[in-house]
Write a structure and sequence with these properties.
Elements lengths: L1 H13 L9 E7 L16 E9 L5 E2 L6 H8 L4 E8 L4 H10 L5 H14 L4 E6 L8 H14 L3 E7 L9 H5 L3 E5 L18 H13 L7 E6 L1 E4 L6 E4 H7 L8 E2 L2 E2 L3 H14 L2 E5 L11 H9 L2 E2 L11 E3 L6 E6 L5 E7 L4 E7 L3 E6 L6 E8 L4 E8 L1
Parallel strand pairs: 1-2, 1-13, 2-4, 4-5, 5-6, 6-7, 7-8, 8-13, 14-21
Antiparallel strand pairs: 2-3, 9-10, 9-12, 11-12, 15-16, 16-19, 17-18, 17-20, 20-21
Helix pairs in contact: 1-9, 4-5, 9-10
Length: 398
């Protein structure tokens, strides 16, 4: 309850809530994770950023030698907009030389034309620009402004990934305003490059600092998304290693509910839920780096995000048919979960930290009584899921 009150205090202090229908869930998928294509629940996303495409000296784009067609088709089949993400934080010498050459005033128009051809070839919806750190120089802003002109002419969207609390000096106000939104990279506060500074690399406080920082740079909350990590750093190893959230949970499923195991620091389900609530209340979306590092199970961080966002109050009228009837609400020693449809429905009851407390499958036209005598008073979420849809309900125990 204390955490809920704190979140409500932040919401009241920071301004009006974001409209739910405009909220974005953006997932990056790098080419070296394309093998997870069949396991990713794209229906839980609104946008997919394919990472990273880089040019040769002639401006021809390539994304790790991979064919992006299967990924684009899989995401679009679920109604997801697909963007190509350019550059990235780790450029080879060849890519760095190509970017320096192609962003020159005499070369950038032809390069931008090739970018547009690539986008058209694969039926993409937008471009995400992720040139970082020492590669951001005086050529950056003029390139962005010319790219914006072409994006407008083709009816596309232009976004950027920028550090959580740092603005590159060569990004002008005009270039910053040219982006439809900015994905704040609110992670890597520490890591393998700083082994003497062990600790959380993406704490909740960093999310708050990033939000205030970019608003101070003149960027509206409606143009900011909150980046969250699906990975962690092990400061107990030499050198410091990084691990997928999926790997950390494979060690022990209980790891999903905490942010630290020994000297491994990451974001577990409770922190991801808390950050999602903050982003929903104050920003225009949440961004994930990156989808291939998730745990593809009930302990998925992407599922935790989606289920936090898609909550239905069982006492309020709905514009669509409820999958389940759940009563009484509020409840005490037990509650009844009834499936009045002909479909098989799986349900899960979670606490406000996202921990699954009850789980079962209900066949069509069936019901069951769920003992809840051992649950403390407070708020709970019940998620109902069929093969092709999902609803989440708010419950209260007195």
């Amino acid at each position: 309850m204390k955490r809920i009150l704190l979140l409500l205090t932040f919401a009241m202090a920071l301004g009006p809530l974001t409209a739910q229908e405009d909220f974005k869930v953006i997932g990056y998928l790098p080419y070296y994770r394309f093998n997870y294509n069949s396991q990713i629940e794209y229906e839980r996303l609104t946008h997919l950023n394919l990472a990273f495409a880089n040019p040769d000296m002639e401006g021809n784009l390539d994304i790790g030698g991979q064919d992006i067609t299967p990924i684009v088709n899989a995401a679009k089949a679920k109604g997801v907009e697909v963007y190509i993400s350019l550059a990235g934080g780790a450029l080879t010498d060849e890519w760095e030389q190509a970017w320096e050459h192609l962003m020159l005033p005499g070369n950038r128009s032809a390069f931008i034309h090739k970018i547009m051809q690539y986008v058209e070839q694969y039926g993409l919806d937008g471009i995400d620009f992720d040139l970082e750190w020492g590669h951001v120089n005086e050529k950056y802003s003029p390139f962005v402004l010319e790219l914006r002109d072409s994006v407008d002419a083709h009816g596309l969207t232009l976004t950027a990934a920028l550090p959580g609390t740092y603005r590159y000096p060569d990004i002008t106000d005009e270039a910053l305003a040219a982006y439809d939104w900015i994905n704040m990279m609110v992670y890597d506060l520490t890591g393998s490059w700083d082994p003497g500074n062990p600790g959380p690399h993406s704490p909740y406080s960093f999310a708050l600092n990033a939000m205030f920082y970019w608003q101070g740079q003149g960027v509206a909350k409606s143009k900011l998304t909150l980046g969250v990590p699906f990975y962690g750093y092990d400061f107990g190893s030499t050198p410091v290693s990084s691990y997928r959230y999926g790997t950390i949970v494979d060690w022990d499923p209980a790891n999903a509910w905490v942010d630290q195991v020994n000297q491994v620091y990451y974001n577990g389900i409770p922190t991801i839920v808390q950050k999602t609530e903050l982003a929903e209340a104050q920003l225009s979306g949440i961004m994930i780096w990156e989808l291939g590092q998730d745990h593809f199970s009930d302990l998925s961080l992407l599922r935790a995000i989606d289920e936090t966002l898609n909550v239905v109050d069982v006492e309020e009228p709905m514009t669509r048919t409820k999958m389940l009837e759940v009563f009484p609400n509020p409840f005490r020693e037990s509650l009844t979960v009834a499936n009045t449809s002909d479909q098989t429905v799986q349900y899960r009851i979670r606490n406000v930290n996202g921990q699954v407390l009850r789980s079962a499958v209900l066949n069509g036209q069936s019901h069951m009584e769920v003992g809840t005598w051992d649950l403390p008073g407070g708020f709970y979420l019940l998620t109902a899921q069929t093969a092709d849809s999902q609803q989440t309900y708010k419950l209260v125990k007195r």
